Amino acid sequence: MAKRNVKTIFGMLVFALIVVIAAVFGGFYYLIQLIATNYKDPNLDIVRQKTASEEGFCLNDVIKENNLTFYGLGEFYTEACVSIVVEIEHVGAWLGSGVCVASKGYEYEENKTIEEGSYIVTNYHVISEIYERKASRYDVKVYPNDYTNEERYGSTLPYEGEVLWYDTYLDSAIIYVKENIDWVRMKDRSIDCSIEDELSKSEPAFAIGTPEKLENQNTITRGNIVSSEVNYSYTVKNIKIGLTEEEVLSNIYEYLIPIQIHIQGGNSGGGLFDKDGYLIGQPTLGTLSEDGAINYAIPIYPITLVLDDLISTNENESALVKLYSIDYLNIDTIDYYESDVMQTCFSGYKKYYYDKNYLSSDLVYNSDTGIKVLNDNEILGFTKGDIISSVKVKEKTSEITCRNDLIFTLLKSRKGDTIQFNINDKPAVLVTLA
User: Fold this and answer.
1) Which of 175, 218, 303, 308 could make a disulfide contact with 120, Cβ separation 3.0–4.6 Å?
2) Are residues 203 and 271 in the same domain?
């Protein structure tokens, strides 16, 4: 009997010990989660105080001197992110996000700074409603951070936005508002991400945007860059070739940055930032990938090619500088390697996303480079079947590996430049931008 009681007591003690250990570990886990959820970078308020009244400061120096953490960077950059609503006939038609890349005090040329106003980048598809629907009136409304704070903004909200530039191929747009979006100039902290090795696989990153509703403004979601490999996205469109129409693949996004960060409708056009707080891209494309967690962002690089010129002419109240896109050439083009993957796609052998929208992971390429011209342009000298292998502008020759190479070359070019298109097996085509 005594032995049985000893065993019972021992068993109870062991059970009690397990319960205590579980409670301790559970308590620690809860405490860690609580700290992580409510953690506030101790230097965040210091940085905000130092920058609140300054103009023309360098974000690089401020952040480096005050050792903002990864968490603090996200909170700090909410000030640079805005929400965008397009109204058609005074009815809200689209909700998206944007990032203020330049505002009052930003030096766009030596000894020349923005006097008033702000320049905001977003996705073209965020504001495309105003171009794709026939309406007698449309408005782009911009809501800066903490837009409900009347003490801060008064009754001037929302700001009226003007679309200065957009490119349908790049899905990029630049909006101007006459008001200052506080003191933030994100272009001081943006980098060229078009070169894939500038991003590291599994590098921490965070996105800021307005998912689904305006009430969710500047929601921060954290994750990482999935890989440094270049990704592409294709859609299928009909192109008239001669007297017939043929289905061809068309790049709608190139140099996509794959991210393992949760995004939803409304995040489009917001900011994607790396671990050091650099603006590297804009969340743009959600996918139905098998793991359900891989999304995509477009790089900020194209914006950096046109922004200063737009600011310069806009600040001087002259006609905006003419920016050239592939549409200027009036030629339909297709990446040379796409010819080999078309049959595979249309055979149904490979899976696809969003009906007829393909990602590069579904396709198999050959090693040939260049872009193929699908129609004639007798005025400029292009002929159907031409393979553009490289271009020369301002004494610099660049190889054309895909259509975006040509798009970026045109974005760097200005009125009066002569572009030499080197074409396989025929004389070069010279085009002077008028």
Assistant:
1) 175
2) yes
For residue 103, CA distances in Å to 133, 186, 299, 390 come to 31, 9, 21, 37
Residue 17 shares a structural domain with residue 132: no
Q: Who's near 180: CB < 8 A, 6+ residues apart?
A: 103, 104, 116, 117, 118
Measured CA to CA, the distance from residue 114 to residue 307 in angstroms comes to: 12
d(CA 83, CA 219): 11
CA angle 336, 339, 341 (to 5 degrees): 115
Residue scoring higher pLDDT (434 or 236): 434
Looking at this protein, which amino acid is placed at residue 14?
V
> Global pTM?
0.78
Dump pLDDT digits (tens) for 102-119: 888 888 888 888 888 999
Q: Of 313, 273, 306, which is closest to residue 407 (Cα–Cα)? A: 306
Q: pLDDT digits over 319-343, tens only?
A: 888 889 888 898 887 777 554 444 4
Query: Which amino acid belongs to residue 286?
Result: G
Which CATH number is 186's domain given? 2.40.10.120
Domain hosting residue 12, numbered range: 1-38
Q: Are residues 252 and 207 in the same domain?
A: yes
- CB-neighbour burial class of residue 149 (10 A; exposed 0-12, middle 13-18, buried 19+): exposed
12 band by pLDDT with thresholds 50, 70 and 90: low
Q: Which of 299, 317, 335 marks a domain boundary?
A: 317
My answer on whether 85 and 220 are in the same domain is: yes
The dihedral built from the CA positions of residue 73, 79, 80 and 83, taken in this order, carries a sign that is positive
Indicate the number of domains in the chain.
3
Query: What is the Cα–Cα distance from 276 to 76, expressed in whole angstroms?
Result: 12
Lowest mean pLDDT among 29-38, 107-116, 333-342, 396-405: 29-38
In Å, what is the CA distance from 15 to each residue of 28, 314, 376? 20, 75, 83
Q: Is the distance from CB of 330 to CB of 358 less than 8 angstroms?
A: no
309 and 423 housed in the same domain: no
Tokens representing residue 265 in the block: 């409708």
Contacting residues for 71 by C-beta, under 8 A, at least 6 apart: 39, 40, 41
